[in-house]
Amino acid sequence: MYRYDEFDHTFMAERVAQFARQVARRMSGEMTEEQFRPLRLMNGLYLQLHAYMLRVNVPYGSLSSAQLRGLAEIARKYDRNYGHFTTRQNIQYNWIKLDEMPALLGDLAKIEMHGIQSSGNCIRNTTSDQYAGASADEIEDPRVYCEIIRQWSTLHPEFSYLPRKFKIAVTGAPKDRAAVALHDIGLRLYHNAEGKAGFEVLVGGGQGRTPVIAKTIRKWLEPEDMLSYLEAILRVYNLWGRRDNKYKARIKILVNATGIDEFRNQVDSEWDKIKDTKLQLDAQEIERIRAYFASPAYETLPDYSAELIAHGEQNTAFKEWLKSNTAAHKITGYLIVNLSLKSPKQPPGDITSEQMLATADLADHYNFGELRVNHRQNLTFTDVRQIDVYELWQKLAALDLATPNIGKVSDIIACPGLDYCALANARSIPIAERIQQRFEDIDRLHDVGELSLNISGCMNACGHHHVGNIGILGVEKKGQEYYQFTLGGSSTEDAALGDRTGPGFSTDEVVNAVDRILNTYIEQRDDIEETFLETYRRVGMAPFKEALYGAN
Amino acid sequence: MPHMVIANTLRDGRVVFLSHDGSWAAAIADGELAQNETAASRLLADSKSSANSNVVIDPQLIEVNETDHGRQPTAYREYIRAYGPSVRNPG
Ligand code: HEM
Ligand code: SF4
Question: Is the CB of A236 under 6 A from ligand 2?
Fold first, then answer.
């Protein structure tokens, strides 16, 4: 992992002291709320319905066990003993007090974390594949490039006041677990015909009220040119992105209005000017950063998968969990293990301080002291020895972190919605809970198979509803909460936006509507191997519409 | 329908209601009810006084129903603000 150097530590200490002074000036009335608001937002502090909410960056979702312990301590000391992991691999605290913020930021700095650039019209936390460095299908570790982007974009003076927020995602594997096509810029590492690794660059993707799948702006970019090319895109956007209307300010609107070919020309002419400047990365610099992400000290181990499967024959709960919550590792004898934060007992993505502390201990014991946050609001241990997996499963189950539902219908993405969020139109969490309770039955869950169900409480789409295989959007109609459905969305390498089914459903009808959609899928699928998305793509909307609204 | 003034405190962001003596109450039952439009605008004006500008953020009038179960803001959003999240805290 990247560790702070002396410069970083000094900078953070100064920044905490500066914010402490700003808080004091606001509390004494020297500063108005209008003056103070942008300053607190720069440090990740929002005002929500019931309290202040603090968003803390988890760079590309990588955490050390020490950091997780620190986050648990912060939840205990300054919040109500829990935190919420978000689709952007960050953590949010919901009950923060302004006058405690300086002390809190000081504690965060001790674990080398902060909320800077987690809000506002700047380049936000770069997100990535939670399996980075470990998955069997990986080409190169994307975190190396995420870290280079982090260093370049943090406090970049030219890009601190962009027309709107800006989100970058990087994947190093052909299986896209980072939703790169839904970002302002998406980078996809692949091998060219000569076997060299480089990027396909996508631009202009996004969700929100105008969802757009990103377009390819460059088929091939040398890693050495990454920063100069990103800077060229941002310059064109900074110059021409609309500042008159915040709903038209994202780069996706500019790319659509300009046309991708003309936009590419503009970027290329900007790029020509800066390509051979100090933005050029030399191979040595890339290697220097790569050293932070060196593989852990893997042992030479035999393949133990047959024994694990045999274990499963004796224990169905373990078998189901093994099937859905683990993934193949690049090293023989190891496995990737996902910790489900989607127990029906807790809101999606929420985790208590006790669970954080226990997870940190497990990470020390079984996973080289590290873990990942992933964009589906779960946690991942990337490097578990297969021989430890059964024991780890037992311990996770005791912590309620082993619900066997990763990638299944109850592995719901849900934003905070109207229970917390000042922008919401409807609640998300209670809907997620009810769906989870309905699909608690393991056999049903596994019969339905691979499926993503995503819920947002308003059209800002923080809960990725446009790209859920089933998407649910909360709206308000005459003072009541209503939920509209979309079907067929996907955030992976075959990214697609879902199609609206028709009129929305009341709070009481939502779970039955999900049930009818799933029953229709089961009736329509060719066989149990055909996933929900495949079936939807083959048969289209008609049978689902009929099941939801009747034959007419 | 009666109105109340709702706001978040500056110090900790918690939801509060303006009460008859000008202080800010944590419980909706302790806030002042304005029964007509004149009373409501006076309440709002008080809430926006300079003394309040570094005590609360964004005071607003909300419509409230008096029911057997206590006062209920008519807008769902304000109801959730008054009574807290509809889901329990996991912590
Ligand atoms: C303080 C609470 C939050 C506020 C005020 C907020 C605000 C917004 C807004 C206004 C947008 C739309 C941006 C646009 O269309 O230009 C948005 C998008 C988004 N937010 Fe949030 N959000 C909040 C919480 C969250 C949470 C909890 C998550 C993760 C679970 C999240 C993740 C995202 C994502 C993934 C998008 C869509 C990607 C995109 O920007 O196109 N946000 N948010
Ligand atoms: S989607 Fe809407 S309701 Fe949900 S967190 Fe984002 S802004 Fe809030």
Answer: no
